[in-house]
Design goal:
homodimer, mainly alpha, Arc Repressor Mutant, subunit A, Four Helix Bundle (Hemerythrin (Met), subunit A), 2 domains
Chain lengths: 231, 231
Amino acid sequence: MSEKNKDTKVYTKVIKDIKEKILSGELKNGDRLPSEREMAEKLEVSRTSIREAIRVLEIMGLIESKRGSGNYIANSFGNSLFEPLSIMFMLQEYSPEDIHELRETLEIECCRVASKRMSDDDIKLLNDIVDKMYKTNDEEQSLLLDIRFHNIIVKSSDNPLIVNMLEVISQLMDKFIKEARKIILCEENNREILLNSHKEIVLSLQERDEEKAIYSMKKHFEIIKQAYENY
Amino acid sequence: MSEKNKDTKVYTKVIKDIKEKILSGELKNGDRLPSEREMAEKLEVSRTSIREAIRVLEIMGLIESKRGSGNYIANSFGNSLFEPLSIMFMLQEYSPEDIHELRETLEIECCRVASKRMSDDDIKLLNDIVDKMYKTNDEEQSLLLDIRFHNIIVKSSDNPLIVNMLEVISQLMDKFIKEARKIILCEENNREILLNSHKEIVLSLQERDEEKAIYSMKKHFEIIKQAYENY
């Protein structure tokens, strides 16, 4: 077996072992891992390979090594852990329809929940964003405002799992919004339709009207779908 | 700066650089990366650090190194890339409500789409699974059948993005199903209610009835929610 395959194999074994311990409740954030010697014996590999696998997990940010004290599951995770996976998602080349479907499904739900949970400050923020959207003619700025608009609604869902999932594929989503805007704005009339659609979403949230919130977000995605079909 | 922080920093730089190249369309699956010398010069770090960062990405399965030829973006990704992220999701300790909300949202959509796209073979498979569910009294077997039932519906959505997202958090989902079943089955009557609910979903898919498919999956999640509330 080549050096590379051997290391990948030990890395996979170490990951699997840690995972089982987390599933069984034996390990959680901040907990100390067994010593490298113990792991080497249990998994029947050399200590050098264990050290290399641990090192990979450390650089990724899943594990913290403390000199003289051992290896620990990190207490909090930086973005470094998301990054390789987000690259993988970027390389998969999903179709616009696949991305549209996921976004539509999750954002309608986020918008529904946001109508009940969004803070007044965030609603004010959304109103400000829409005002700025009406005022600017600069597409680069409009795009950033659009992305921010949707992010605020997702975050207001107050569901950390949905927020984290969408974070993992945020580049994918941002790219989708950019392309969708391009396609929508090919039609002159669509600029106003798109602006009004954003406005309608804010109004429904402001009125704390769950049904309207669902309806306005559905309509928003209908505009995107229509534009793709006519393109 | 400690050795560890330095390496993490170079790794982050390398990842960022690769990501930008993918976003701009300069790099895709199977493409050759710039040489380690070029990367070291561009990112203003030593070649040794570049080599270490590349090595981490190689062990993770994102990059393939070919002796004498250079480093390439992998053509396909194994599970090894998903694993560290799935550990992170496991450690986050999301509430059952958060997991329920995500599952409900995505699975109702998957079920809606499956009513149009699911193959007759898969419908037969679902029918077999439900038959086995009725027959067995073994909870371990029932759990596996339940997990398989939902996986088949998700896969039939034919949306690789949704399938991949749910794969990343599959341990989380399986654990949720296990706990939800425990809570539901505390009530004697619920066993039959749960069985009939699975049956109803298959029937709606068999009839290719979109509205019924949505309704039956909604009802399924309503049973889970009710059980949690009465628990």
